[in-house]
Amino acid sequence: MINIKRNLLIVLALVICLLLLAEIAFAKPVTITFWHAMSGSRLGVLESIIESFNATHPDYEVKPLFTGTYAETLTKYIAAYPTKTGPNIVQVYEVGTQTMIDSDAIIPVYQIPEMLGETWDWAQYVIPITNYYSVDGNLWSMPFNSSTAMLYYNKDLFEAAGLDPNKPPSTWKEMEEYGEKILASGVVDHVYSTGWPDWIFEQTLAYHNHLYADNENGRAGLATKVVFNDDFGQMVVDTWTRLHNKGIYIFGGAEYSANSAFKAGQIAMLIQSTSSLAGILKGSEFKVGTSFLPRFEGYPIGNSIIGGGSLWVTKEQSEEELRGVWEFLKYLGRKDIAIQWHKGTGYFPVSGAALKDLLDEGWFSAEQTFLTAFLQILSGRRDTAASTGVRLGPFVAMREVFVSSLEKSLAGQISPKDALNEAEEKMNLLLKDYLELYGR
Amino acid sequence: MEFAPTFFKTLNIPRGEQMHEDKFPGNKFLPYLLIAPSIAVIFIFLIGPFGQSIYESFFFSTPFGTKTIFVGLRNYIRLFSSPDYLNSIVVTFKFSAFVIIVGLSISLAIAQLLNQKIRGVGFYQVALIWTYALSPTIAGVIWASMFAPATGLIPYIVSKLYDGYKLNWMTNGQLALLVVAAAATWKMLGYNIIFFLAGLQNVPGEFLEAAQIDGASSWKAFWRITFPMLSPTTSFLLFVNMLYAFFQVFGLIDIMTHGGPGNATELLVYKLYRDGFIHLNTGYASAQSFVIFFVISIVAIIQLRIVTRRAIYFR
To answer: Can you tell me the mean pLDDT for B170-184?
Structure first.
């Protein structure tokens, strides 16, 4: 009896010694906090990428935290920053880019390799994507989930309505003609909807090489006024309102809420971010087709713009933390990870090498729908500010202004013309206020 | 207010220090020490932030607080010259009126029915009260998916009944306001019913029996006896529902409409949130919070003065 007790004690003591040794040998990993806004099918892919990073990098532990929508994440970051409770890395959508640049709260990513005594070739990332997040040619945030908008359509419904499932509409005029045919066939009550109506408006302008705001879309200097309220802008809102009144277009609300109607087969077409692709393919029981955004014939050619989010690095971190952050950012750009991210979501792979690998393995010929966004970007111009994208300080508020004006126009409360006038007036005031704060 | 002097007179205890001395001999400051934690909480969590927000309402600052400009009354001037804000005030009053009037009438009717001696009354009581236990998020999601324009049940039924009529609350502001108000009312039903039920059960049966013997119809008995005797409950619920309609429906609005379409469902408190936390304009939002405070205080004072004075307290 006594012997057993004594043996037990010895074993226990040994175990404790071993544990203590282990504690010394394997120092605790440095924790890197990461706030993000990835929901739906995107979340699972992100989590598995972070798990694999933590498994392969025992010195660091990335702790992801879902902080709500993009707007909520930005808000939380701003609230947390002054109290030093913010994360090491935060994901911000493209709308918040100017706010972050002016925030004085972040380290531009192009400075990080230098701070750590490394050099890094930024040209390995896909240039149209890094362009969006660059100021004077220097990259300020790490591109992570970049997308653009494209047209999704339901091939089965096209067939049921007597249309060729391999000929989606390519102009807004065709959108209307197809819409009328599909409505007349009675297969659906409404024909198309869009996600992110504010963003789709920006896309439509850029797609026709039309500026949104002055000072080169706010890229050459802070914008002082919006410039979309002309014949072209009015034609866009006019067209949308007319299609809405005919019952072809059904307003789908913000962000991704229109997706459910498309997946359920209640509408035949959807204009949405490419990041919804994997989710839509998985959630739909019909043949999904994708194509370029519809055009207005006879207007200049621009390009669809980059949306989605990028990763920003908080100032005032210890060197150890910064090293971890940098390892993580490099890891996300690695080609196998970029491929995993692209396949799981539909976001662009950020590195050129990843693109080559995807091509080599035949991914794009097997999964044609994943190719659409690339071809669309490649088939437009990239040498003008209008086709590169908009960068505005009070962009979040300005987008809300646009949506509420559009909603009023669709509801018939005011004419499309008045809607744009109202939006212009409110947006210019917001820009004026921003200049008052940040103008130099 | 008039309660204290009479109370002290009847007990024949002189007010003030002497009483403290009697109860806590030698410890003049003990009572103050004991209430200090509550006072501290009130100062730290209520008065402090309130003062801060009044202060901030005179400034315009960057989201990260890196630069602040004194703008005097500009935030207030903009507020009252903004058609959006005036619209928001109108919307808030319409919404509150619906939630209070419709909500309380339906609750009272249901409570009256639940107060009858019928089989399985316990089941009905629980079934009607449980909505209060739902979180605003769940309630919002339920109502939003019920009315979803392309996939919802109700637009589907309406389009079948009325020859393809398309009910779309995402583009019809009046409808959106009605749906949100109905959801808010529905959510509060349970709470109102519980209180009305408790109030009804306190109405002494003798009075009603006496009225019956005197030949009063049950309708008349209700309006002449039950309703007046319920007035303390009613006035309490009026107040609670008003606060609810003003402040606590934020979650519902945020889930269901985000203040849209246009700004048809942008209640004061939701507009404040958007300006402060989405548009990151703290000064403007602070000015709004002061205005809301002012409006709600006036309404509260009026209600407390009129309603409690006229309420009939039994026993």
So the answer is: 89
